[in-house]
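Chain A, query sequence.
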Amino acid sequence: MQNEKGQGVSHATDSQLPGKVQEKVPAGIEKQVPDALHDTGSNKETGKVSHAIGESKVPQAIQEGLPEKVERMVPEAIHPTGDGK
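Chain A, predicted structure.
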């Protein structure tokens, strides 16, 4: 049963997090986890999206978890964002 904080159920369609963790974390925090690790479909709402425009050597979950400014600092040969660095 879900409480007023969204605890007690998982809000993910696919997750790498243990079931008990999914159930105990409040829904608001659960949606902050990158969708590559715990897919709640909230990446666009939270800004946790990859800005790569090509094949990246950075794991998807890390791409989604990094702030855009930091993501764009990674060399193009590793993580192409089109910034030419």
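The mean pLDDT is 77. Residues 2 and 68 are 33 Å apart (CA to CA).
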